[in-house]
Amino acid sequence: MSSEIASVVAILLSIALISAISVALLTKSVSVSLITLFYASLILGIIFATYGGIVVGLVHVITFAGAISVMLLTVLLMTGESKLIIGSRQTAGALLVVSIPVIGAASYELLQGAFVINLPESSLSSLLQFLWEFRPWDLLILIMIFASSMIAIANLLSKTRS
Amino acid sequence: MFTILPSVQTIFIITATILVFIGIGSVSYSKNLIKTVMSFQVIVFGANLALFSSGLGGNSIDFMSQTFVLFSILVGASVEAVAFALIVVVHKKYGTLNPREIRRLRN
Q1: How many domains does chain A have?
Q2: What is the ipTM of this complex?
Q3: In Å, how far is B105's CA from the nearest CA of chain A?
Q4: Cβ-defined contact of A71 to B1 (cutoff 8 Å)
Q5: Can you give the pTM of this predicted structure?
Q6: Shortest CA distance from A19: residue in chain B
Q7: Cβ(A31)–Cβ(A84) under 8 Å?
């Protein structure tokens, strides 16, 4: 695909990303922020996957649109800060209608790499091979960071501490 | 037709800069700790996009930049998980998530 089309697609995706994040941070309802931040995570995953980073896009969507969004929703419900009324039923229906094609397109893009604009040699195996051969310490450090964060969370939320 | 268009790398670096500034501004002015963590997430998004776009030049893929993006994603997720746990603890102790109110209650 030519570089002009790649630039136009990049501009469109950037506008969509900035719009979603602006809505997420400017709105007063935390639940609307959560939903728009979820969309922003999906758009950023699409950006990564479109420009050659399919693995990075997948990890980003799994981590931020999946785990972090669910964790955020749990925190909202635990603290009672959520006003989970989005509006009317029509608004909720419209959001659902918009969500299905966006999530479907994102899934198709991430799983198939259908619209990869450049760097066709980027593949799952090559990045993982690079990681395993040249950056094994990074993987070890990541495991240590995960373990330390889990220990910190367990300490913070333990009953003995409270 | 599109001769004056900037390169993809330039577009993404500008977008990442905008995201980081939006996030920093929102961290400064937010009155809810959950919104503060969301703003931190936006800053992480900007950093990830900047790291990713740094490897976009030329025709070959830069695995180093993608490795750094992976590292940044997972570290950011760990930090946010700890921040969420802290939010729950703070809400249990003070009953509010407004930083000014928490400061007033502490004093």
Answers
A1: 2
A2: 0.89
A3: 18
A4: no
A5: 0.83
A6: B19
A7: yes
Lowest mean pLDDT segment, chosen from A7-16, A82-91, A102-111, B80-89: A82-91
B13-39 tens-digit pLDDT: 999 999 999 999 999 888 888 999 999
Question: Position of tokens 């785990």?
Answer: A67
State whether residue A142 sits within 8 Å of chain B by CB.
yes
Tokens matching residue A26: 């400017």
Spatial distance between the Cα atoms of A103 and A85, rounded to a whole number of angstroms: 22
Structural domain tally of chain B? 1
Domain coverage including residue B60: 8-106
The CATH number linked to B69 is 1.10.287.3510
Residues 6+ apart with CB under 8 A from B71: A138, A142
**Among the listed residues A27, A42, A30, the one whose alpha carbon sits nearest the alpha carbon of residue B87:** A30
> Does the CB of A61 have a partner CB in chain B at under 8 Å?
no
Interface contact flag, A156 B82, Cβ < 8 Å: yes
- Domain span at residue A73 reads 3-120
d(CA B92, CA B75): 26
- Residue B49 confidence (pLDDT): 93
Digit-coded pLDDT (tens) for A34-83: 888 998 999 999 898 888 888 888 899 999 988 999 888 888 888 876 66
Could you tell me which of B80, B57, B68 has the C-alpha nearest to residue A52?
B57
**pLDDT tens digits along A78-137:** 887 666 555 566 666 777 777 777 677 666 666 666 566 655 455 566 777 777 788 888
Contacts of B24 in chain A (CB under 8 A): none
What does the alpha-carbon distance between residue A36 and residue A115 come to, in Å, rounded to a whole number?
23
Examine residue B44 and state whether it is found in any structural domain, yes or no. Answer: yes
Q: Do residue A57 and residue A81 come from a single domain?
A: yes
